[in-house]
Amino acid sequence: MPLNSSYNDLITKINQWDHEYYVLDNPSVSDAEYDQTFRKLLDLEANNPALITAQSPSQRVGAKPLAEYRKIEHAVKMLSLANAFTLEETYSFFEKAAKELDIPPSTLTIFSEPKLDGLAISIHYEKGLLVYAATRGDGKIGEDVTHTIKTIKSIPLQLAIHNPPEKIDVRGEVFIPVAAFKKLNQMAEINGSKVFVNPRNAAAGTIRQLNPKVAAERDLQFIPYGLGEYEGKFNFTEHSEILNYFHTLGFRKNPHCYAFLGDFAEFEKNYHVMEQIRDKLPMQIDGIVYKINALQQQTSLGFIARSPKWAIARKFPAQNEITQLLEVDFQVGRTGVLTPVARLEPVFVGGVTVSNATLHNMDEIERLGLCMGDSIEIQRAGDVIPKVVKVVKIGTQRKPIIMPELCPVCSAPVERIEGQAAFRCTGGLTCPAQGAERIKHYASRKFMNINNLGTKLVDLLYSKGALKTIADIYSLKLSDIAELEGQGEKSAQNVLDSIEASKPTKLGTFLGALGIHEVGEESAKTIAKYFKNLNTISHATSEELMQVPDIGPVMATNVVNFFRDEKNQAIIKQILASGVTWQDEQSTSTHQQILAGQSWVLTGTLQNLSRDEAKALLESWGAKVAGSVSKKTSCVVAGKDAGAKLDKAESLSIKVMEEAEFLEAFNVSQESDIAS
Ligand code: IVH
């Protein structure tokens, strides 16, 4: 068989199997056969790279996005929906529509669909091939998310029909099924990474990920619900036909869709059915979407502002239950903030049994007038952790909720953060609750950039007691690492080498790595530039720190308190003794501070420099590089495809330089300047 056709056969086969598995929930081959065939495809592609096409299933996890958050204009505006919260509101919406159409409401055919709780996406196909996918954005302009959308296996890279339309936008919801969401959060807890509050946030966060590999590991799904741009033979008369058509194109179907006549009693019946199945569905739904099925009627009704006059979302009410507040614990977070957590008499609400609720802070407890022993109403509105709405009955044996004076983890004194509702443990670098996270922050790419000392390894070393503070990084022994599961002598040596290689650093980087509250990457650099050496910074008063541009009283106080703490001083001393060094600011800057005090913004894709390089150059001349344009911006450097920031600069009459102009104006000869 010619190479080309056996390659195409492999692609067709795998695409067909993916369709059976991910769209029809009806697999026809064993995992082993699938894996073997996939491997064949990969081998063939590795040996014949010229053959590779964008439709190959191997290309689902492909290139990174073209630019961070590239904008895409929707040819047909992406609408949103008006909400109804009662049966009466729902019915009267369609009564009004019927009146406008001059027909009785009961002659309307209403199509009902579960309202999937995720993120609206428009996927654009040309000649049957997936070209790009975008978020809704403001309805007219969305964000390019092609790279992550392509990783979703229930989205065909090529439409499954022989005569596809010239152009079609398939619009629908990307969501994460409840089981996959639970698994994701369990993993996040184990790895110490971010836990998502609800499936919707998880879906949105995953789609807007820059790294498609991360998206590919999360079990996202897509279900279409409407049409955007369409160029081709159009012979649909009903919305339901379009949904059926999507299915023939290779997409999943929304389960539990119904068609009925626009009678009040029919709406009522449908709502009760949906309410019943809600908690049994594999995905989270937050309501029902009702649409007039006839496309002609839809067209003659049109839309107002952002929503159609032929469809409405009937939202489910938040689910509330009454239970008893047994106890309040205080959890110490990564930054040392103590958060009160309500321990409840377990209660079934919104499809799950809950035994914890967030209380946010002490002000919230006071506002609610809450004591342990009270009967309370809790609410679940799609989020994992419910919130406390109010006290419904005062307990007979009430106990007041008091912020502990000492940290429940390390016993250091707890103090209120000035001007805020939060309380914080003053244990600093020595509090174990903050420990592992602080070490991760210190070693991260942005700061000490210790390759190979990733979050999982830090957690492991921390739990074994080999790492207690950031200073312990420098006394790690080969055996500490090598004896951990999944590590060997070689990888342990790599970690030690990376630690060694990270020792020469910069003052600003080190200061940021210490994780002083509120002092981020930029502020740390500014402070370092201003004071020039660590000794001066550690002895600076709040007043002196507030002289630094952009440093306010909260940050200044945090810096002073941090260096005043003897435990922190001891840790810094230990780190310096282990060989971490930098040249003081004065001697490192060979450039004149020609842009001192200015604020610059970079936007679009630069052709000759990377963003980081351009940023480093500007900073070496004393400029601050900001993320957004404001009246204070001195100049904007605009690369290719610059978007909203450029528009804003123009509207504020702020100076804009194109990349070439920028390079020329500052006489940047790339080899010398960028390398230095
Ligand atoms: S139709 C012009 N159908 O809900 C009609 N939307 O609150 C556009 N949604 O932006 C939407 N499930 O992201 C429609 N079956 C469904 C839906 C649905 C979820 C989302 C969609 C929309 C939002 C409005």
Helical proportion, percent range: 25-40%
List unreliable stretches of 5+ residues. 670-676
Biggest sheet, in brief?
A: 7 strands, antiparallel
How does the overall form come out from the CA principal axes?
Answer: globular
The end-to-end distance, rounded to whole angstroms, is 56 Å
The hetero molecules present are: 2-(butylsulfanyl)adenosine
Question: What is the alpha-carbon Rg in Å?
Answer: 29 Å
Distinct helical segment count = 26
> Count of DSSP E strands?
26
Based on secondary structure, the structural category is: alpha+beta
Strand content: 15-25%
- Arithmetic mean of pLDDT: 89
List the helices and strands and how they pair.
Blueprint: H1 3-23, H2 31-47, E1 71-73, E2 82-84, H3 87-101, E3 109-116, E4 119-126, E5 129-135, E6 141-143, H4 146-149, E7 167-175, H5 178-191, H6 199-207, H7 212-217, E8 221-231, H8 239-249, E9 258-261, H9 264-277, E10 285-292, H10 295-301, E11 303-304, E12 307-308, E13 311-315, E14 319-332, E15 337-349, E16 352-358, H11 362-368, E17 375-380, E18 387-393, E19 414-416, E20 423-425, H12 432-443, H13 455-463, H14 478-482, H15 489-501, E21 504-505, H16 507-513, H17 521-531, H18 534-539, H19 542-545, H20 553-564, H21 566-577, E22 581-582, H22 585-588, E23 599-603, H23 611-620, E24 624-626, E25 635-638, H24 644-651, E26 655-658, H25 659-665, H26 670-675
Parallel strand pairs: 2-13, 21-22, 23-24, 23-25, 25-26
Antiparallel strand pairs: 1-6, 3-9, 3-10, 4-5, 4-7, 7-8, 10-13, 11-12, 14-15, 14-17, 15-16, 15-20, 17-18, 19-20
Residues 79-81, 113, 115-116, 120, 173, 225-226, 254, 289, 308, 311, 313 line the site of 2-(butylsulfanyl)adenosine.
